[in-house]
């Protein structure tokens, strides 16, 4: 238990150090412009997750605040406006077939993942040949400037109805926020974070961060025997803007990446004697 507590404390320190470093970067002009002054107030999950999420309410929140939290029932309803998701059980079960992240393992941490790339042109989304995932050190101080090759998303999952419902919704929603962008580079990441009695799982080991894209969807697929794992949103100067625990399937966060930072608190098992995991799908959209 002492080891787990020390690990969580060390991760919390990294979050704070990352926030301070990011705030200094903004003040020095090395990153995007700061969030408008109207975002100075702090948001809570209740304030930011509408009682009834619609295209309009979510569009306004992401446009005005840089992020929105969405309850699972609302998120699934919005996805299914584009495609039925009758294959969701098989889609969610594919997280049991994720492979270890060997790059992160080299740092002494552990998670499982798969990766896929798509392109959107003229309103049509096509899966692209398997390729590396790359971030610069400016966005990922832990593993930046490395071309990381992960195992691909399984073809039957990458081309599934559920995947295309999610991607088509994101294309329409993010496209409505940035109608000037005609072509999108899209990346999909399946993540499984596992926790044990002796080691907390770290969904975002790099701390509170930006991904270096235009928009991000973080979608909960499953969580089992997990405590914490709260999604946090911060202003460039480190102020907390909101937090929301993705607790049920389809609970989601929609993020305008250039304006706010996001992270996830470490996860621990509710019952140390049982297996535990947190499964999420992360989708990023970047102008091509």
Shape descriptor reads: globular
Largest sheet: 8 strands, antiparallel
Q: Helical region count?
A: 8
Number of domains: 1
End-to-end Cα distance, whole Å, is: 47 Å
Count of distinct strands = 13
Q: What structural category do the secondary elements indicate? A: alpha+beta
Uncertain spans: 1-47
- In the CATH classification, which architecture applies? Sandwich
Order of helices and strands: HHHEHHEHEEHHEEEEEEEEE
| Rg, Cα atoms, Å | 18 Å
Instruction: Using the coordinates shown, work out and report the CATH topology.
Output: Jelly Rolls
For this structure, what is the CATH homologous superfamily? q2cbj1_9rhob like domain
Strand content: 25-35%
Mean pLDDT: 81
- CATH classification, class level: Mainly Beta
Give the helix level as a range of percent: 25-40%
Describe the model.
Mean pLDDT is 81; it is low at 1-47. The protein has 8 helices and 13 strands. The strands form 3 sheets. Strands 1, 2, 3, 4, 5, 6, 10 and 13 form an 8-stranded antiparallel beta sheet that branches. Strands 9-8-11 form a 3-stranded antiparallel beta sheet, with no helix packed on it. A two-stranded antiparallel ribbon has the order 7-12. A hairpin with a 2-residue loop joins β3 (112-121) and β4. The protein has a single domain (2-287), classed as Jelly Rolls (Sandwich). The protein is 28% helix and 27% strand. It has helices at residues 2-27, 45-48, 55-65, 72-79, 88-93, 102-105, 155-158, 161-177, and strands spanning 67-70, 99-100, 112-121, 124-127, 183-194, 215-224, 226-228, 230-234, 240-245, 252-256, 261-264, 267-269, 277-287. The relative contact order is 0.21. The longest helix is centred in the first third of the chain and has 26 residues, at 2-27.
